[in-house]
Amino acid sequence: MIPYHIPPAQRQALLELGAALRARHYRFTTVTPLTQARVLARPHAPQASGLRDIFGWNRPFTSAAIDAELLGRMRAAGVLETSEGLLRSTLRMSTLAGEWLFHSAYPTTQADAVFFGPDTCRFVRAMEQTPAPQLVRRVVDIGCGSGAAAITLARRFPQAEVIAADINERAVALADLNIRLAGVHNARSCHSNLLHHLDGKFDLIVANPPYLLDPGERAYRHGGGALGAGLSLQIVQAAIARLSMGGALWLYTGVAITDGEDPFLRQAAALLDEAGLRWTYEEIDPDVFGEELETPAYAGTERIAAVWLVAAKDAGDE
User: Fold this and answer.
1) How many angstroms separate the CA atoms of 13 and 268, rounded?
2) CA distance 189 to 147
3) Which of 124, 188, 246, 306 has the most beta carbons within 10 angstroms of its beta carbon?
4) Structural domains of the chain sorted by starting position, each given as residue range(s) with its CATH number in brackets
């Protein structure tokens, strides 16, 4: 497991490993945990593993399945574990929007795992398609995880300061690593609970927070509050207080629909309307994490939808 604070020598080795995978044209699209489990249940010979098996599907492999140079880089980076004579990577790598991104190994059972999946892809795609505020000088990604969003925004707004913030120290470390691997110089990662450890206002606040009720309360998954909406509502409140004139909030989250009603929308709309912000709201996937409906917490829920909230503060609001 990657430490909270990666020593310089190990960080350099990880950067060299990432660069080596990029040079080998490695590509992998991360799927949902249930799809991952189904694929891993299929018969597979460890000695036949390729790079996608090792760093994407996270399968066990033999030393003969990988070239000596890459194996050496994995050892130097400290991402090899051994079990019953087989090797396994303790980090995965996904590719998205032209970037190579390290994140936690499968399964993400640790409380501080750094998750990456289809939500990340939908979040980045929604950001790419959304018109930006007129002036973007300072940006923050709340709950940055792997740093995928912060890197995307740093490339889109090269003159802006982009902050990748997370309460999870392991996410802060991996976001820093991925920012360095991407070579964007206007982004940095830092530890913060929402915006509590950051000063000033922001022209753009983005977030893809956890939105489920997780019995283990894992940081990347547990949204708290009513049906997982607690953290998303806190982000709306934080944005209302900390957006600069003309600034915007871009929030990707999941909402539990009960009897055809969206309680998150009702509460978020009340907050935004009271603050005088303009906003739009869109369901971008009507049915995600359907397996959660089998748990007691969602016994009365008919579906969980992925939504995209854009809220803007008029330039004359301060």
Assistant:
1) 44
2) 8
3) 306
4) 8-96 (no CATH), 118-312 (3.40.50.150)
Give the orientation angle of helix 169-182 with respect to helix 148-156, to 10 degrees: 40
The position carrying tokens 């190579």 is: 100
Tens digit of pLDDT at every position of the chain (318 positions): 666 788 999 999 999 999 999 999 999 999 999 999 999 999 999 999 999 999 999 999 999 999 999 999 999 999 999 999 999 999 999 999 999 999 999 999 898 999 999 999 999 999 999 999 999 999 999 999 999 999 999 999 999 999 999 999 999 999 999 999 999 999 999 999 999 999 999 999 999 999 988 888 887 888 899 899 999 999 999 999 999 999 999 999 999 999 999 999 999 999 999 999 999 999 999 999 999 999 999 999 999 999 999 999 998 655
Closest to 269 measured CA to CA, from 280, 259, 260, 261: 280
Q: How many CB atoms lie within 10 A of CB 65?
A: 20
Residues 153, 139: contact at Cβ < 8 Å? yes
CA distances to 15, 76, 176 from 8, rounded to whole Å, are 10, 12, 12
Which residue spans within the chain are E strands per DSSP? Answer: 80-83, 86-89, 91-96, 99-104, 138-142, 161-166, 187-191, 202-207, 243-257, 278-285, 303-312
Q: Are 310 and 239 in contact (CB under 8 A)?
A: no
Residue-wise DSSP of 12-29: HHHHHHHHHHHHTT----
pTM of the complete model: 0.95
Contact present, 134 and 246 (Cβ < 8 Å): yes
What count of Cα atoms within 13 Å lies in the side-chain half-sphere of residue 276? 10
